[in-house]
Amino acid sequence: MNRTMIKKRIRFSLYTIALLSVFVLSCEDFDEDREGFTPPKPVLEFPEGASFSTQRDSVASIVIRYNVLSEITSLTASQSGTDLRTIPLEGLNSVEDTLTFNYTVPTEAAFGSLPIEFTVTDQDGRQQTETFVVDVIRGLREFSAETIATEVTLSADSIYRFASSVTIAEGGTLNIPPGSLILAAVDTANPVTIITEGGRLVAEGTAEAPIIFTSANTLTQTAAPGDWGGFILRGDEDDPSYSPFSLRYVRVEYAGGGEEESALFIREVSSTPMEYVQTYFSGNYGFYVREGTFAFKHCISTSDASTGFYLRTAAGNAQFLIIDSEVDHGDRDLHIRDGEPVTISNATFIGNGRDEGEDLDGARIRDDAGPFRFYNGIVAEYPDDGIRLQRYEEGQDIIAHTFIFQIGGMQDDGIGTEDPDVEEGPSPLRGAGLIFYNQREQFNNQIDIDSTLVSGIDSDSYVPDEIPTVSFDPSTLGEFFDTAPYAGAIGDTNWTAGWSLNADGEINE
What we know:
By secondary structure, this protein is mainly beta. Helix content is 6%, strand content 42%. The chain has two domains: 43-136, Immunoglobulins (Immunoglobulin-like, Sandwich), CATH 2.60.40; 139-477. The protein has a 25-stranded parallel beta sheet that branches. A five-stranded mixed beta sheet has the order 2-8-7-4-5, with no helix packed on it. It is elongated and about 90 Å long.
């Protein structure tokens, strides 16, 4: 190709480019409605971050930046579909600007995430919505009073750190509202303990807002069993009308390090109800009742280092109990002694696994205990005995409508024994409990040391796949007991959900 031809082609290309430039410049106004054209949406962003932590009644200052293709028409804030307000545009640039939106957290706001949706609209109706999250937190307050002699009510707006033991004296009441979090300072020499001495503790939470008592070490994720003392709730044997506590939807974590070595030590109390209470990783006992009477419903002992429910010289009724032991602590999960009648229905006792250790029993009822009646139970996954009943009086003691399975094993003759000259292995029922083993058709007990009799029940779960129905309705035992013609603590509704913890630290669902 000669040089003249090359020059002609270059001139033609330049001419074409010039024509295209003129065409583009003449089309400054786009037809935004033509097919295939999508104009850009407005830009809405939070240049200082899309979340902020603050307390109730405090102000969250939210920095917002917007950029629109055509002039801005409105900027609104809403919450859960409800408009909070339209933000005035006076003084703002019509296309791009930055502003601060001040939001006051309501007094009644729930703790946790509180999302706010911001929407910007331009004059052509284009919109963009972004979400800013206000994290509503509680402030930490020190509680230093060692004696309460008047009525004291804590605020659910704050987390309280108890620096030392607290005695609620005569004339005093400590009211703790739903959703409260109480931290006990860790002092191994003088563990924090909450004690009633003529006064009254009222801690009534809800399933949605349980009250939690725990170790201050939970803030650093170093909490351990026995970090603090727990509760000593004393009644008055000379005044049966005195009720030292009211507990409902309460969780007691990492206690059991005090004088009585119990998360909940209850003494000389007259039938004060306790409902929806969990002891969690106690350093020793979970629930310890000594002298007096008890009335437990929907109570849980989870991974307590020793006995979950220790009833000594204590009479009473219990329904819907759960014991979930994660380790072989060489003791028994239910321990009853010293001569008072006890009736329990709809209990689920789960050990750490039939092959995990050798010393953990589901229950031991000593020969000096009072009449023992146990209905509609599930006892499973224990390396040693299921239930060891050392006393028996016909018509007084009974184990009925109960499933006992996955127990460490049995002797060659298929029964346990109390004969000291006979070497024995674990048994589903031992001692006087053999009456109920040998006559299980009469008492409707189902026993299998090797098979799982209730699907879904194992060392990691106390919730059955299907409800194991039985023929006995515990409401026939008296007005304390609810209708529950099934075995175990969980029926149609999992009452542990939403407020109690699994052994792994997750909320039960």
